[in-house]
Specification:
Blueprint (H helix, E strand, L loop, with lengths): L1 H9 L4 H4 L11 E14 L4 E9 L2 E5 H8 L2 E4 L6 E5 L17 E13 L2 E10 L2 E5 H24 L10 E10 L4 E10 H9 L84 H13 L14 H6 L6 E4 L10 E4 L2 E10 L5 E7 L18 E4 H4 L5 E7 L1
Parallel strand pairs: 1-10, 5-6
Antiparallel strand pairs: 1-2, 1-6, 2-3, 3-8, 4-5, 6-7, 7-8, 9-10, 11-16, 12-13, 12-16, 13-14, 14-15
Helix pairs in contact: 4-5
């Protein structure tokens, strides 16, 4: 944590690169003049490179792919029409070609609040779109990575202090560190790694997971007169859909009491008001697409996806194929879609409720539900879980397809 705080503090010094003076806050769609500029950047202690960027009011905005390619990370635009990008720190760049040289000296652009989604976690940051490319401040990449690290550290602490987790959800965290060297006028950008498995072990103190004991409870004579009430929620899987649901219908049973809502007054998830399938993740993950997909799988099939945890959603299919869970399997064949499976895309997961097939057995129409539809990391009972319907050819290209986690 100490190293992370030092890196975060160092971002303040980046003002020498991005601006002189205070932070500029733009309106929802302020039109600004962007001027072509250069920045000297060194990636992972390599050679200093000249990175083209655009300067607006003293701030440099860099092209996303210029940063992620040099760090060995994948990046892509958000596919649902929202503004911003998704950074996949555990995936190799989808294109290693040198981005086109910038020649436009000035441009009128609209600076807006966009999403910089880092490993599925949403951070807000100012950006603009020019000639099909998104531009963000360099410091915002590090801020987004640090935000996701905070969630990862909270999660691993939750898991380690609990009794039954055998391993952390993520074994490592890949981050981004940005440091401005005022003497050389060079920005050092590094890909960092935090060993979450070691943090888990340190908190756990070397203790092995506790197996649930079969023990006989000692009950007072007076208590024997009344039956013992079990505190654990009763849960019975509903079963996978056997017919096509209605578009816009909400199928998932997530809240015990809708009036009590999903969140407490302090902003934390109201875990006591969530049904059992949606309490597998710690409260910091409530509202994420993975939280919903896993909960919906358990709600319908009774199966727990926890054996596939460890390296993020992009590894779920690979781990399912490896036999990590005896009840689940994985496939990368896009035509092997079926009702009751989880479809995994780069940085995203959703639940397939039903599939219509044509006369030749090819998938024709997909009925699916998903969480985090607003891409803000919070659960919205009026939006998340609504049945959506797409032709298979449109469904499979929503984002970069990885595969399916299927029930054996």
């Amino acid at each position: 944590m100490k190293k992370k705080k030092m890196a975060t503090a160092a971002l303040a010094a980046l003002m020498a690169l991005t601006a002189v003076g205070g932070i500029t806050v733009y309106g929802a769609s302020d039109t600004k003049t962007a001027t072509l500029n250069n920045a000297q950047v060194r990636f992972n202690d390599g050679k200093v490179q000249t990175i083209q960027c655009y300067n607006i009011d003293g701030y440099n905005y860099v092209r996303a792919r210029d940063i992620t390619n040099n760090l060995g990370m994948a990046v892509g635009a958000i596919q649902n029409g929202d503004t911003g990008i998704m950074v996949h720190p555990y995936q190799a760049p989808t294109s290693t070609a040198t981005p086109e040289k910038l020649t436009q000296q000035t441009a009128k652009v609209k600076v807006v609040e966009g999403n910089l989604i880092y490993d599925g976690w949403v951070s807000k940051a100012e950006c603009f779109l020019l000639n099909g490319r998104y531009y963000f401040k360099l410091a915002d990449f590090a801020n987004a990575a640090d935000t996701q690290l905070d969630v990862a550290l909270e999660t691993v602490e939750f898991e380690a202090k609990g009794e039954y987790a055998k391993a952390p959800y993520m074994s490592i965290h890949n981050g981004i560190e940005v440091v401005w060297n005022n003497d050389t006028k060079v920005i050092d950008v590094k890909k960092t790694t935090t060993d979450l498995q070691q943090i888990f072990n340190d908190i756990r103190g070397g203790k092995t997971p506790i197996e649930k004991p079969d023990k006989e409870e000692v009950v007072d004579e007076d208590e024997k007169k009344e039956p013992v009430v079990e505190k654990e929620d009763k849960f019975e899987a509903t079963g996978v859909m056997t017919f096509a649901p209605k578009e816009g219908e909400i199928l998932a049973n997530i809240l015990k009491d809708e009036d009590k809502g999903a969140y407490l007054s302090n902003g934390k998830a109201n875990m006591n008001n969530l049904t059992k399938p949606y309490t597998l993740y710690p409260e910091s993950h409530v509202g994420q697409c993975t939280w919903y997909a896993e909960g919906r799988l358990m709600e319908t099939t009774g199966l727990n996806l926890q054996p596939l945890w460890g390296d993020g959603v992009d590894k779920w299919v690979e781990k399912a194929q490896s036999g990590k869970s005896p009840d689940l399997d994985g496939t990368t064949n896009k035509y092997d879609i079926e009702a009751g499976c989880i479809a995994v895309f780069r940085g995203h997961a959703l639940f397939v409720e039903w599939v219509d097939f044509d006369e030749e057995g090819n998938p024709k129409t997909v009925y699916f539900t998903e969480g985090n539809m607003q891409r803000n990391g919070t659960y919205n009972p009026n939006q998340d879980g609504k049945v959506q319907v797409l032709a298979f050819d449109d469904f499979i290209v929503r984002q970069s397809f990885i595969g399916y986690v299927i029930v054996k």
